[in-house]
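Recall that a protein's primary structure is simply its ordered list of amino acids. Everything else, from secondary elements to tertiary packing, is in principle encoded there. The following example makes that idea concrete.
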Amino acid sequence: MSEEALSAKDSLKDLLFGSVSALYTLTHPHTLMFPRCVGKTIEYPFDTIKVRLQSQPHGQPLIYNSTWDCIRKTVRSEGLTGFYRGVSSPIVGAAAENATLFFSYGIAQDVIKKYVVQTKGDLPLPYLVLCGGISGVVASYVLTPIELIKCKMQVEQVYSGQGKPNTVLGHIKHVWKMGGLKGFWFGQTGTLLREAGGSASWFGVYELVSKTLKEWRLGRRANSDDTNTIGELLFSGASAGIAYNLSLFPADTVKSTMQTGSIVNPEQKPMTFQEAARTIYKHGGVKSFYRGLGITLARAIPSNAAIFFTYEGLKNHFK
């Protein structure tokens, strides 16, 4: 088989394994030695809390003073179902995001190996970080429409009264009516910044930590296995999740503010990325860009550990 054919085959594997790792992590957390609560039933409520904290109206008293305040008020007014508004979107989004990320990450590496450094071995860390950033840029165009609908559904019950919430299809029709096809990419700048910087950190930290842990172990036990252990993979994935969310969380806050603006304040005209950022800073300072960070990190640690563990497991199994 030619080198080009092998490269294409590996890319297709990245696409498939990236999709499976996201869906498998969401639906089978118990098989990854995590408590069942680290699956979909806990993952999505964390995101709902984050988006609600990020999307509060500016220049008015806060609806939620803290993460726990948001949890209490959501349970009191909507019950547990309030945490699952729009849950179908992230199921699709998780598969689409991971498939796109791992696929484009592999393609970027192949291109750099062939045309930049002319090597068949592993790329140096700076190039891996670059490949991660490239994969994030590609993934952002897949994610923005999915997150637009998700964010609207997560906050609509808070600001639109207690009537029957709109459906996914209803929101899609409304976005099409108001902005046509390009309306689905409203907030793209925020998604692009978050994914480019976040994915560079995500892949870069994962590669660095997994390599460092393996080398440290081999230095102590030279005869041990040359592949990462389960513990090393889980720790590396968790570290990557923390790095991803810490890197450009403010961009995600601006994006959420933009995408939920039509529901939070229907009379306000849509804001650009710069306008939303200035508004957030004016009414809350730097700290307002980090609302929901704590709950996001709590979610990111187990989920990203599981994603990388599953992805590497699939790769090793189907070598």
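The first helix runs from residue 3 to 27. The two ends are 15 Å apart (CA to CA).
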